[in-house]
Amino acid sequence: MLLGVNIDHVATVRNARGGCEPDPVPAVPLAIKGGADGITVHLREDRRHIQDRDLKEIRKRVKDVELNLEMAATDEMTGIALKIKPDMVTLVPEKRQELTTEGGLNFKTSGKKIKKAVDLLQGRGIPVSLFINPSIADIEASKKIGARMVEIHTGLYSNARGGKQAKELSRVKKAVKKAFEMGLLVNAGHGLNYTNVGKIASIKGIRGLYIGHSIISRAVFVGIEKAVNEMKKLIKESE
Question: Strand, helix or coil at 149?
């Protein structure tokens, strides 16, 4: 199971002061040395953390692992992706007022935009993953649109407790199974941390887990390399 490390929040700390440090670019080799199978960055429309300059520099340095660009399905972002040429793109919803992505894509309101972005990107050889809720309907919509991958939103599972968490875990498992049966590559992520990752990592059929905030939070105390290595170890032990 792959571990994609999202380094957005290195840039969040930098941007809190409006200066130039910490620079997210040096985080890339440290995460890879710690065992990351990929690097994820989310270039938001409002540029609240990762900047265009960051993305360009990170693209230069990510050679032997996967560079995953998270972005909204807009013409601006599609154009940037076609120029930067990440190894894959994950289309995600965006709200200006949200602190972090709150849920999966809405195919009813954004289906045409999503399909346009998928067609353009995959037509140029960039595989596309769609960030979706653990819903059978959303998996079927993803397949119909033509995406090659989905990333199952694990936020509700991560935030739930007790019996509710078990219910949300069951939803994730069913979604992974359905996507796998439909021939889609299946990823998962959002809200996963060192405490709750094990049950998700034990689900058969998941290609990769995409984790950021928890790893960067841990890195404040132990460094990025060790924080990534600890997460990678937990995933391996749970498979």
Answer: strand
Domains by residue range for the chain, with CATH: 2-238 (3.20.20.70)
**Does this model's pTM top 0.90?**
yes
Rounded-to-integer distance, Cα 114 and Cα 93, Å: 10
Catalytic residue set: 42, 70, 190
Decide if 107 contacts 140 (C-beta within 8 A).
Answer: no
pLDDT tens, the chain, 239 aa long = 999 999 999 999 999 999 999 999 999 999 999 999 999 999 999 999 999 999 999 999 999 999 999 999 999 999 999 999 999 999 999 765 555 556 789 999 999 999 999 999 999 999 999 999 999 999 999 999 999 999 999 999 999 998 999 999 999 999 999 999 999 999 999 999 999 999 999 999 999 999 999 999 999 999 999 999 999 999 999 98
